[in-house]
Amino acid sequence: MPDTDWRQLHGDDFAGARVLVTGGAGFIGSHLAGALLRLGADVVVLDSFVTGRRENLEHLAGAEVVEASILDADAIDRAMRGARYVFHQAAAVSVSHSVVNPPLFHEVNGRGTMNVLESARALGVQRVMFAASSSAYGDSEQLPKVETMQSLPKSPYAATKLYGEGLMRAYSRSYGLDTASLRYFNIFGPRQTPDSAYAAAIAAFAKAMIAGKHPTIYGDGEQSRDFTFVHNAVHANLLAARQPNPVRGQVFNVGCGRRVSLNVLVRLMAELLGTPELTPTYGPERAGDVKHSLADITRAREVLGYAPIVDFREGLAATTAWYREALAKHM
């Protein structure tokens, strides 16, 4: 794991501040909560543990944990009381799962996000950071993706995340609750679950290859992604919270500004794992998937001061090493 010095990057800006991380036992949420604890924040984690993992809390000594869903408005009120910042990471995730079960995504990502905003408005939160998604861009052929582009979601998941952005902007403009939406581009890293049928590419490939199996790519493998190590997403959230000026619901791309094809990704992972013979097999393209994704991070750089702090290869090496150790325990 890259030893990111969060205090060098963010100083004492969070020392003593009470913060709520929804989905804080999840992949990105647990990394964010951990960084906030190292920065001296008073951290509250709210998680239903539907997809969040209790073992992720082992890294969060000192955090207060509230086991509840974002569909429980009273629980959100209790967890959020006194919070200066809210980092809203909780969500139903996975493009392919949303195609199978769209009502679930509408309920959790729609009503759940409104519940978070209603509590934040009532309790006087200073700013809400929202985990948005690059899937909002859909299949536009324009690269890189710029925040001013038309949004063309292809899946129910993407549509609900775009709706969340709209809520963030509306609450900022209607009620003066400051918000920021961070469009994540293919975040990866340690603690990303490989166990789900809907696991992200790097997690799914790692699980297969460590088990000695050929990884499966859906499509021809030439689809490309702006793979972004999780510490970069954490850094962007912290920068957004720290902004001295109102953000007013702006949307920011969070990526590295570089894309890698799935064919190249598998080859690099095979090299790192010492299994070059595990070449990919190919299956049919999956409904809702986009062909190419690449972030223009100009706005995040100019407004938030964001730049990637961990590059793709360093992050991939750390991630494959973590999967090798984590999966070995279950083999």
Characterization of this structure:
Strand 1, helix 2 and strand 2 (42-47) form a beta-alpha-beta unit. This protein has a domain at 15-188 and 229-256 and 294-309: 3-Layer(aba) Sandwich (Rossmann fold), CATH 3.40.50.720. It has helices spanning 6-10, 27-38, 73-80, 95-100, 102-123, 156-175, 201-210, 230-242, 262-273, 298-304, 312-328; strands at 18-22, 42-47, 64-67, 85-88, 127-133, 178-184, 187-188, 216-218, 224-225, 228-229, 250-254, 260-261, 281-283. A seven-stranded parallel β-sheet has the order 3-2-1-4-5-6-11, sandwiched between helices. It is an alpha/beta fold. Helix 5 (102-123) runs parallel beside helix 6 and helix 7 crosses helix 11 (312-328). It is globular, with a radius of gyration of 19 Å. Helix content is 40%, strand content 16%. It contains eleven helices and 13 strands.
**Shape, per Cα inertia axes:** globular
Q: CATH fold name of the domain at 15-188 and 229-256 and 294-309, please?
A: Rossmann fold
**How many extended strands?**
13
In what range is the share of β-strand residues?
15-25%
Structural class: alpha/beta
If classified by CATH, what would the architecture of the domain at 15-188 and 229-256 and 294-309 be?
A: 3-Layer(aba) Sandwich
Average pLDDT metric: 95
Radius of gyration: 19 Å
Give me the strand/helix succession: HEHEEHEHHEHEEHEEEHEEHEHH
Tally the helices.
11
Terminal Cα separation, in Å? 22 Å
Helical content band:
25-40%
CATH class annotation of the domain at 15-188 and 229-256 and 294-309: Alpha Beta
Q: What are the low-pLDDT stretches, counting only 5+ consecutive residues below 50?
A: none
- Widest sheet: strand ordering: 3-2-1-4-5-6-11
The CATH superfamily name of the domain at 15-188 and 229-256 and 294-309 is NAD(P)-binding Rossmann-like Domain
Biggest sheet overview: 7 strands, parallel
